[in-house]
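User: what does the whole thing look like in 3D?
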Amino acid sequence: MDVASTSLSTSGIVYTFTIVRNRVPGYSGEVPYAFGFVELAEGIRVISTLIADDLDAIAIGDTVDLELFVLGTGDAAVASYRHRRRDARP
Amino acid sequence: MTDIVVGGVGMHPFGRFEGKSAIDMGCDVVREALADAGVGWRDVDALYCAHMYAGTGAGHKIAARLGATGIPIVNVENACSSGTAAVVMARDALRSGEYRTVLVVGIEKMPRGFMDMDYFDDWRKRVGHAVNPAQFAFAIRRHMHEYGTTERQLALVAEKNHAHSVDNERAMYRKPISAAEVLASRPVVDPLRLLMLCTPNEGAAAAVLHLRKAKAGDIRLAGHGLKTATRAQPLGEHMPTDSPIGDPGDSVTRRAAAQAFELAGIGPTDLDVVELQDTDSGTEIIATEEIGLCELGAGGPLVESGATRLGGRIPVNPSGGLLSKGEPVGASGLGQVFEVVNQLRGRCGSRQVPDVRWGMTHTLGAGGNCCVLVLAC
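Assistant: Here's the predicted 3D structure for the full assembly of 467 residues, as structure tokens:
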């Protein structure tokens, strides 16, 4: 099977998600936080952190937009991606 | 035609046991299972030892305590399905014709709190994506969206399993807990609350398997299915980090159960009792559907109807399940085998299901492991 790199959409739809309210081993970010599966038009779902002004307002079907970010500093820094909830609904 | 006969079982209580090692508990349950089977350590032709946390050569350390007889020993790690996967390996070893008696032991001693999930890449741990109960939350949130499963139905699973455990002296939690208390417990990974999640803890369990023609009263391993999730299955304990959109195909539980039913020559309506993977209330609801105890999407109404309670049409987790016992991952599957074997023998006292002829165990773990066993008498 041939394998090739392809670009994915920078926006997607929330397929499912949770809000984590406990400390998690190895994680240095803020608690609570949301993460879940985002559906992309290319036919794939990816796990991503979900950002919203109000975590409790996140719902399946929400439109979300990609952001890149760095968590931590110095040797502990890790580059990753997340999706922000688009508050202005069409 | 020979059978795979479960000659004896043993189980250390699941809970917290300061000063007692996983090896100590393993030796206890091996002695109990051997005595139950009426055989000695020197009758054992091979040993499989299931665990995730017990370090190098755990089965070898148990054997060294009981007498280093020189038998083959294999340690088995298969996440939450470690213990029952080891049963399938023992079954295969017996079917090879090389052995007559094989011992399977599962042991575990886990720290408190969320499991440290080294299953995921290190960067995912650091950004907070390595949270195994979150995966259960993903599955049940989607189930609620598609089928209208309610929070109250999730709470009823916990209420039922805690009601079952009150007389189980080997369970960690034996207090009745009402659905209202479950709904009042704090959210941990929405929509799952604290009392909808099982506790990682400590314990051990064992089973002695023989290759022989079953006699009247013998418990037979009549069917088994050991499978892993496919890439098409979008959610579940295989903990995917990405998945294709499209036909999800049959879930791993559905495929493992289908094989076990086919080998046993029965279907879901023939089952009298089921012990299944209630790592959380949502996984129990989804598993009851995928095993075939009800239609897809009907697992919430099934628990609400009382059908899965003791006294109902098909009691599920009469031991109290993992929600009451806790889940020492290497031992939990063999803990299910202990319960179902004793249900088949009519030894379960106040939680005995009447006239049990067919029982099932179901475990599901990281990587998408699923192991289903059908036991019969």
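In plain terms: Chain B has a mean pLDDT of 96. The first strand of chain B starts at residue 3 and ends at 15.
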